[in-house]
Each structure stands twice: as structure tokens, then as C-alpha cells.
Amino acid sequence: MINKVIASLLPYMPKKFVWLFSRRYIAGETLEEAIETSRKLGQEGIEVTVDVLGEYITTMEQANENKVIYFSVIERFEKEGIAATYSLKPTSFGLLIDPELCFEYVREVVEKAGSFGSFVRIDMEDSGCVDAEIELFQRIHDLMPRNVGLVFQAYLKRTPADLEKLVKRHTPQTPINIRLCKGIYVEPPEIAIQSRAGVNKQYMELLDFLLRKKVYVGIATHDQELVTGALQLIECNKLTKDEYEFQMLYGVTPDLRTKIIGLGHRMRVYVPFGEHWFGYSTRRLKENPHMAWLIIKALFVRG
Ligand code: FDA
User: Fold this and answer.
1) Which of 31, 65, 68, 74 is the most buried (most CB within 10 A)?
2) Residue 119 Cα, ligand 1 centroid: separation in angstroms?
3) Would you say the CB of residue 294 lies under 6 angstroms from ligand 1?
4) Catalytic-labelled residue, pool 51, 107, 121, 123
């Protein structure tokens, strides 16, 4: 009840107050803050993938603006010498408005990151975007196979078939690089597994499949059960440290993160930042007052 009242009042409260709820999960409003956060993580032996928080876009001018922002983020991070990759959401580049121009913009961002030897991860959004996002990835992978990666969601029933197909393009010259996560969107039972046990089972099967195929996987989870399972698979498959990495969201389960790093595994943290953090956080908090989780969700869910 108290949470509900706070959540409904948050949009009318000073930004500084809302920031108290959001700051654990968001690096800040400015590029400087993202750099500072990433530098601190770097001192703990953690690499980052940087995400610019965006508003729901309605015009391709906004998509173009987002492209230019990513250019400056990439240039700055590379200039600072921070070990970073970049994550982006295709809908912020106009996927649902003009897919062809979206391809062009995302390609340019990947090219920019590639010019520094870096890498761009295409986040996977809700089920309505999956076909278009796989196609977008494939077109860019055809051009710059080492500089682009995609995310797959273990809760989707279609994911085993999608990965089976995609893995066919995995060769030493054209490696694929996949982030495997559970999936964050609310999807109907016809297309998505609903139970935690079911999602975890499929997650482990997919991870096993990818690791056996020698695909580089970003094992993106804070779930102790999945981390334990992943560590067993890594051992069984005798993988070396440069064949996979663990990934977590900024601010979530830092203790588990430290434990994994202590075991000598590579860790990458997803660092979101940007001036739109306030709109994101407050809208989500208002819709449903389970605070922390919704701030996290706000990082991924469009609109
Ligand atoms: P689960 O939700 O079961 O959480 C496991 C445990 O982690 C919880 O029991 C709790 O202890 C802790 N925890 C989780 N969230 C917490 C919070 N907010 N505060 C405190 N503790 C918390 N999704 C997607 O659809 N598309 C995408 O592109 C991405 N990208 C992505 C990148 C990275 C690096 C990560 C880590 C995750 C994503 N996700 C995502 C989100 C992902 O799909 C999933 O929703 C979350 O990671 C939560 O799932 P877990 O595997 O952590 O398990």
C-alpha cells in the first residue's frame, strides 16, 4: 500500500528524490557519470557494456539523434581507454518506423565501434520485434561479423529453433556472439514459458547447446541456480576463460558478481545512463510499485 502511494506520487516529486530509488541501477544522467561508474567497475576487474537510455521514439529524426549520441559515447569511451562494448535497442533507432533506415543507423554505429576494434550488442526487445531484430543482426553480421552480437531470451518457445538456425552461420571467420538471458517482457503462454523452473530448464539446455558449438556466450543472469549450472558446463566442456563471459545488470546482486570474479571468470556489467532516466523510472514505478524490478524493467521495455 505504502509502495503504491509512493509510486503514484513519484512523477510529481523532485528528481533528486526519485533518484534515491533509481541510482542503484542507473549510472547517471551524463556521459561523465557513465565514464566514472565504468572506471570504478574497471578497478574491480569488471568490463562494461554501455546503454544510452532512450525515450519511446516517434520520428526518424529522434533515431538519427540517438545514432549521433552513440557515436559520441563510443568516441569518448575509446578516448578514455575504458574496456567497453555498447548495447542498443533497435526500436530507439526506428525499427518499427523505418526498418531500412534503422538498419543503416545501427550499421553505422557498429562500424564506428568496429573502427576502434569494439563491439555492439543488439538487445532483444518484446516478441513483436524478434523476427526483425534477428534479421537486422544477420544483415550486419554479414558485413562485420566480429563487431556485432545479439541477445536471445530463454523464455521464448521459439528460441531453440532460432538458435539452431543462427548457429549455422558460426564459423571461425564469421563467429557469432550471443547474450543469453531469461527475457524481461510479459509474454503470453502461447509463445513464452511461464514457470521459473521451465525457463531455467530451457536456459540450461540453450547454454549447453551454444557452449558445445563453441559459440561465445554472455551468460546474463543473477540467478544462483543458473550460475551454478553454467559453472558446471564450463568445467565439463573444459572451456578457457576467453570462450564465454558472465554478465549482470548494474546494481543487481553485487555479492554474486564478486564471487564469480573471485573464481577467475570474466564479468561484464550492463551500465545504463542518460537524461531520460527520470521518465523511464517514474512511468514504470507508477504502473506497478515493485520498485527495484520495475526500474530494471524500464531499461528494456519500450514506451
Ligand atoms: P531472476 O529474475 O530469477 O533473478 C535472480 C535473482 O537475482 C533474484 O532472486 C534476486 O536475488 C536477484 N535480482 C534480480 N533482479 C533484481 C533486482 N532488480 N534487484 C535486486 N535483486 C535482483 N532481457 C531482455 O528481454 N532483453 C535483453 O536484451 C536483456 N539484456 C540483458 C542484459 C544483461 C546483462 C542482463 C543481466 C539481463 C538482461 N535482460 C534482458 C534481462 C533478463 O532477461 C532478466 O529479466 C533479468 O536478468 C532477470 O533474470 P535473472 O536471470 O537474473 O533471474
Assistant:
1) 74
2) 22
3) no
4) 123
Ligand 1: which of 48, 191, 225, 252 to mutate, judged by most atoms within 8 Å of the beta carbon? 252
Q: Is residue 66 lining ligand 1, measured as CB closer than 6 Å? A: no
Task: Tell me, yes or no, if 123 is annotated catalytic.
Answer: yes
Q: What is the pLDDT of residue 55?
A: 75
Structure confidence by residue, pLDDT tens digits, 93-152: 999 999 999 999 999 999 999 999 999 999 999 999 999 999 999 999 999 999 999 999
* One-letter identity of residue 126: D
203 Cβ inside 6 Å of ligand 1? no
Residue nearest atom 38 of ligand 1, based on CA coordinates: 181
